[in-house]
Known about the structure:
The complex is a heterodimer.
Chain A: E1 2-8, H1 13-22, E2 29-35, E3 42-46, E4 49-53, E5 56-65, H2 70-81, E6 89-95
Antiparallel strand pairs in A: 1-5, 1-6, 2-5, 3-4
Chain B: H1 3-30, H2 36-63, E1 66-67, E2 71-72, H3 96-114, H4 124-147, H5 152-156, H6 164-182, H7 198-217, H8 225-253, H9 258-272, H10 281-305, H11 313-331, H12 350-380, H13 387-392, H14 394-399
Antiparallel strand pairs in B: 1-2
Amino acid sequence: MKKIEAIIQPFKLEAVKEALHGISVQGMTVTEVKGFGRQKGLREVYRGMEYQVDFIPKVKIEVIAPDDKVETIVKTIMTAARTGRIGDGKIFVSPVAQVIRIRTGETGDAAI
Amino acid sequence: MNPANTAFVLVSAALVMLMTPGLALFYGGMVRGKNVLATIMQNFVLLAVIGVQWALVGYSLAFGPDVGGVVGSLEWLGLQGVGAEPFKAYSETIPHSTFMIFQAMFAIITAALITGAWAERMKFNAFLVFILLWSTLVYDPVAHWVWGDGGFLKGLGALDFAGGTVVHINAGAAALAAALVMGHREGYGKEAFIPHNLPMTILGAGLLWFGWFGFNAGSALAADGLAASAFVATHLATCAAVLSWLATEWLVRGKPTTLGAASGAVAGLVAVTPAAGFVGPMSALLIGLGAGVFCYLAVLAKVKLGYDDSLDVVGVHGVGGLWGALATGLFASKAVNDAGADGLFFGNPALLGIQAVAVLVTIVYSFVLSFVLLKVVDALLGLRVARDDEVAGLDLTEHQEAGYSL
C-alpha cells in the first residue's frame, strides 16, 4: 500500500476530484495548506503598504492505494492538475505500513 | 416643543450609537486575527464607559453653563436639571434630554476613533484610565469651545456643523500623540501586518456610512430642510471620496482595493462632517474628491514618517478633519444656511482664517494634553502589554478569549 500526497493549485481541486472519481478511487482527504516552492510568494497591498506573502495557499490531497493502482492514480492527478505554469505543485508517494477500518477492524487492502 | 424634531433627533442618536459597533467592525477586520476581540472591545466598551461618564460629568463640562468660554460648569452634574424642558440655547424644539443623549453618542464615537492608533499593543486597564481622562479633560472642553453656549471658538465664528474639529481633528491629534508615545508594534516593518478579515471592515464602513446620516443630518436638530441638505451633502461627499481614493490608488499602485473603497468612504464622511450643514451639493462633491486624494496620500506618508498609527486614525480622521474644516472656510454659503457664514469662494476670505485658528487651537491642545496624559498613565500603569503577550495576541492575554476557534 502507498500514500499518494499531491500538493496542487486550489482551483484544480474540482478537476482532480472528478478525474479520480473517473478511475473509481474510493476516498480521499483534502486539506487547505500553505507553502512555497519555486513559485515563491506573492505581493499584497493594504492602504499602500506592500507586503511579501511567502506562503501561498495550496490544496493537499491524500489518497491511499494498493501498489498496483499507484501509477494510474499519479498519472491521473498529473493530467488533471497540470496547467504548465510554475506553481502546479508536487506529488509524493510513500509506503504505508498498515490500514485499519475503524468500524469493522478490517486491515490491509480490504480496508482501503 | 416639536414632536417631529424630537423623534428625528432621537432616531439620529440611535443611528450615531450604531457607528461605534460599526467602527468596531471596521477596525476589527484590519487587525490580525489574534487581536480582533481586543480591538472590538476597546470600541464596544466605550458605549458603557463614556455613556456613564457623560451622564455624571461629561455633559455638564461640555454643555453646562459657561465658565470663561473654556468649559462648562458642574451645575448639571449627574444630569441635574436636564429633562423634558428644552434648553433654548441649544434647541427650542426638542427636550434637553434629547439633545444630551444625541451628544452622548458623539463623545463615545470620538473616544472610540482614537483606539485605532494603538491597536494591537495597548493594555486594557491603561486604555480605560487614559480614555476616561481624555474624554473628561480633552473632549469635553473642546466640545464646549466649539458647541457650548458661550464657548470661545463659537464666539469667534468658527463653523463646525457636526464635529470636524471637535470629533475628528481632536481624535486625530490624540492618535498622533498615542502613536508617538507608544512606539511601533512588535515586528513593525519586518513582519506582514495583513488585515485578517476585510469583509468585516467593509461591513463596518457600511454601518458607519449609515450611522453618519444621524451624525450629520441629525446635527440640524430638526426634521427640516437643513437636515435634508446635510444628508445630501454627506452622501455626495462620501461617494466622491470613494471614487477619488480608488482612482488615486489605481494610478499610484495599479489596482483599486476594497480596503481603499472602505477607507475612501470614511475619509469622505469625515471631511464633510464640519461642512454638511453649510455647503451645497456640488461643493460637497468637491470636498469629497479632495478627501479621497489627501487622505490616501497621508496614509502613504505615514510609512515614510515612520510612526506606527496602526489603523490610520491620523491619516483618515486627522487629515480628513483638517481638510473638511478648512474646506468649510472655502465652500460655506449663507444661501444654504443663513445661520452659517460665507466662505472664501462666496466672497468672505475671513472665514478661512477663523477656521484655521479653530483647527490650530484644537490640534495643539489635544496633542499636548494627550501626550502628557499618556505619559502619566504610562508611568502609573504602563501603556503597553508585555512583548510576549503582544506576540501571543491581546485576545488571549488581555481577555482570555479567542475570536475564532475550530
